[in-house]
Specification:
mainly beta; ten-stranded antiparallel sheet; 10 strands
């Protein structure tokens, strides 16, 4: 992860998405999560739908609606944190209830 802004606040950490076919797993600070996050892309509208696994009580579960942009080795994704609508822009300012992630592909 290159950067993350959630609802106006910058977030940091060693976050990696390991993408395989139609799902990704999250590696946070070197620890991989066990359950994959299944996603579906709509390239014509640059939309992404993510279907979350069961999550611990008090955390968000269900699905997220988002938009994405892929340029070369850079991926930018913006999710509506309420899971209700697709964001109209890559804006995660205070009160937006959105999060924007920016990633750079690692070559193996």
């Amino acid at each position: 992860m290159v950067s993350c802004v959630a609802n106006g606040e910058s977030e940091t950490g060693d976050v990696r998405w390991i993408v395989e076919d139609d799902h990704y797993t999250i590696r946070l600070d070197g620890q991989s999560h066990v359950d994959p996050y299944t996603f579906k892309l709509d390239p014509s509208q640059k939309r992404i739908d993510v279907f979350h696994h069961d999550t611990p009580k008090g955390t968000y579960g269900g699905s997220l609606k988002g938009i994405y942009e892929l340029k070369g080795d850079s991926l930018r994704v913006c999710y509506d944190l309420t899971g209700q609508k697709y964001p109209k822009s890559f804006d995660a300012g205070r009160g937006s209830r959105q999060v924007v992630y920016e990633f750079r592909r690692e070559r193996r």
